[in-house]
Structure formats: C-alpha cells, structure tokens
Design a protein that fits this description.
With 337 residues, the chain is of the alpha/beta class. The protein has 2 domains: 143 residues, Medium-chain alcohol dehydrogenases, catalytic domain (Quinone Oxidoreductase, Chain A, domain 1), CATH 3.90.180; 151 residues, NAD(P)-binding Rossmann-like Domain (Rossmann fold, 3-Layer(aba) Sandwich). 30% of the residues lie in helices and 25% in strands.
Length: 337
C-alpha cells in the first residue's frame, strides 16, 4: 500500500510517500481501506514534537473509508461497513494518511450514507467541540435536539474547524449560538454553520454586543484564545458558567481575576480530546454519530467549512496549508488514483 511516513520529527519535509505492507488487524481491531484523511493542527504538532511509537509514524488521526477485514473477536458483519475513524495515530503508528489503517473497533464508527468527506472531518474537531459543550455546570452530559434550548453558547473563533463544529453541534442541540470572527468573510462562514449571531471582534465590542443578546451572560464559552479573550470571557460568563479552552492561539499563558470568578462559581475547563475522560469521549462519539445520522452536521462552504483537497503524494503541502492557517478543512485523498 501507499502510505505517508516520517522517521524523525520536523517540518513537513520529513513526510515521505513509501510502499508498506497492508497491516493486519489484531484482536479487537479492524482494517479500514481509507478514502479520505482529515488533517488537524495536532497532526502537525505531533509531527514536530511527539515521540515515534514504532520508530516511524504515519500521520493522521481522522479519516473515512470501508472496513476491509476484522481481527479476532470482531463481528465479521462489519466487513464492508462505511465508517469514520478517530484517533488512529494517537500512540499508534498507523495513521490515516495511507491507503489502509488499523484501529480498535470502537474507533471505527458507522457512517451510513454520509459522505467520506464528512466522515474525515468529524473526529478531532467534533469530539473536541462536544467536550466543550458538555463540560460546564449548566451543560448537559449528552447532546441531542433540544438539549441546549434556553442556553446561550459563545464560540470564540467561529470560523475555525473546532469553532465550526461547536457552532453546528450547538445549533443542532437548539442553543442560541453567538460566534466571534475576525472578518466579514469569516462571519459568513459562521452564519452558514448555524450561528444565531455573529460578532466581528475587530470592528465591534464583543462584551457589549454579546450582552445585548444575553443580558445575564452566557452559559458556556468555547475558547480558542484564552490569553487574548480572558477579560471578555470573565465579563460575559453568567453565574456558574464555564469557559472551555481547547487551544492556545494568541498566547500559552492566561491571567484570571480570582475574586470575580469565585463569586460567580465559574469554571475554566481545559480540553484535550486525546486525554479526555473515556466515558465523555464515548458519549461524544455516540452523539456526533447521531448528529450525522440526523443530518445535523455538514461540511463544505455551504456549511461554513470550505474544503481543501490534496492527493496523498502531496501530504506535505496539506500539512503546510494547516500550518499556514488556511480557513476551512484540509483533506487528503488516500485512495489510489
């Protein structure tokens, strides 16, 4: 099979297209013939920093394809099932930037009739967004239509991949969703994703505008840049509200006023999907799969998430696009052309 491999950490130039034997699924695993691989920022961070579990690594946590074989203890009826894959490369060498990957069966989720493009976009962004929308005092442990009715959710950075996922999932769950963006073009993307209100933080006062929408404050904030937005977040939380921080854009340290947050019994929840509680992650997979089955989440420019496609041989360029902060989702076509 064709696969992208790197044997040392570094910039995208360490990525090589090689021929490798098709892996065989072990007990409790499935072999997936991939159609599309999704590229996430952590794929790039991992390529630069993370240890290589087998002395080499195929990158790519997310992807979609068809189950081709199963290991011992796995139902043979799964063969031929269309699935989406999550965390394929987390502490394992077989990522999704290849024609095949092997994962534990729980990490291959039925996709039904949804597109492979959608499936490759689900894993890291949507599981992260789900955790951000369910970790607060006021937030439910499960998402479904109606779960967030009477809730106001603020998504800081509503045009990014996780921001888009948070907007879509919150809207599917019937929240009032406010998204902040940095340009009118990104505002159009956030609105297309389902944001009820959009605030351009470069042209508008975020606190004033959000307070017009939610005079009592917001229930939860999905935060991409805590260092930059901390003051606004503190000002906008209602009593018992939560700020869920999933990235460190704009700075890796944050200063918080203790007394106001104590009085509000506020929560600051830090989120990394890879190390999230197992039960919370399992619920996220269940709920995201339900949203897909119900048509509650989409991809493409019409859903606020433009797609950028690369062939497998150009995976280095795909990684560079993510490092250059391209707006939208980067996908790699993994099937042989």
């Amino acid at each position: 099979m064709k696969a992208i491999v790197y044997e040392r950490t570094g910039d995208p130039s360490v990525l090589e297209l090689v021929d490798r034997p098709v892996p065989e699924p072990g007990a409790g695993e499935v072999l997936v013939r991939l159609a599309v691989s999704g590229v996430n920022p952590t794929d790039c961070k991992g390529r630069r920093q993370w240890p290589l579990p087998a002395g080499w690594q195929t990158p790519g946590q997310d992807g979609a394809g068809v189950v081709e074989a199963v290991g011992a203890g796995v139902d043979q009826e799964l063969v031929g099932e269309r699935v989406w894959v999550w965390e394929a490369a987390w502490q394992r060498p077989w990522g999704t930037a290849a024609e095949y990957t092997v994962v534990p069966v729980r990490q291959a989720v039925p996709l039904g009739g949804a597109s492979f493009d959608l499936g490759a976009c689900l894993g890291i962004p949507f599981l992260t967004a789900h955790r951000c929308l369910t970790a607060g005092e006021y937030m439910p442990g499960k998402l479904h239509p109606g779960a967030l009715s009477d809730h106001v959710v603020l998504v800081q950075g509503g045009a990014g991949a996780v921001g888009n996922a948070a907007v879509q999932l919150a809207a599917w769950a019937d929240a009032c969703v406010v998204a902040t963006v940095s340009s009118p073009e990104k505002g159009q993307l956030a609105a297309a994703a389902g944001a009820s209100f959009v605030v351009n933080y470069r042209e508008q006062d975020v606190v004033r505008e959000v307070r017009k929408i939610a005079p009592d404050g917001v229930h939860t904030i999905v935060e991409v840049s805590a260092a930059r937005n901390a003051a606004a977040d503190v000002a906008l939380l209602r009593a018992g509200g939560a700020v869920c921080v999933y990235a460190d854009d704009g700075g890796d340290e944050v200063t918080l006023p203790i007394r106001p947050l104590m009085v509000a019994n506020a929560r600051w929840q830090f989120v990394l999907v890879y190390t999230a509680p197992r039960a919370a992650k399992a619920q996220a997979v269940t709920d995201v799969a339900a949203a897909v089955a119900q048509g509650g989440v989409r991809v493409g420019a019409e859903a606020g998430l433009p797609l950028h496609r690369f062939p497998l041989a150009e995976t280095a360029a795909a990684h560079q696009a993510v490092e250059d902060s391209v707006v939208g989702k980067v996908l790699i076509s993994t099937a042989e052309e």
